[in-house]
Amino acid sequence: MVLLACAVAYANEAAGHAAEHGAEGLPWKNFGLRVLNFVIVVGIIWKFAGKAIGDFFRGRQDKIRQDLSDLETRRRDAEAKLKDVEKGIANLETEKAKILADARAQGEAMKAGIVAEAEKKAEQIKTAAETAAVAERKAMVDQIRSEVADMVVEAAEAMIKEKLTAEDHQKLVDKYITKVVLN
Fold this sequence. Notes:
With 183 residues, the chain is mostly helical. The protein has helices spanning 2-21, 28-163, 166-182. Helices cover 95% and strands 0% of the residues. The termini are far apart.
């Protein structure tokens, strides 16, 4: 504000002097007083606001130094992270190969387990089929024996009927009745 007021006053005074003196310009005495006036105003400002202005510029300077230091720290951190990412990318192929190998190993293990389970079930089915075949064969043999026995009985009955007379038949019946009653 003071400087602004001084500038306005100087401009008015300079305009007035230029009109009085014409083209010869400012006298040196007047110029010296103006410089002295400027030095006094600057001295007063320095006396009362110099410390605050100095602190402002020192604070600003310290803030800039701190910002530069922070930026340097962030740059180093970013470079470290970049190196980690590059290592990760370099290890990516190795990790990919490892994961694929693990997956193949698990697939082979599962395949072997499935094949073993299938073989076990096939063996069980085979055993059950053999057991069923043996039982079926036995049932068929028993059925055939029963049919053969029936056929033998029928054939024997027919032969006996042909060779057995009514009198022989009566003797046989009496003999069996006597056995049954006595027993």
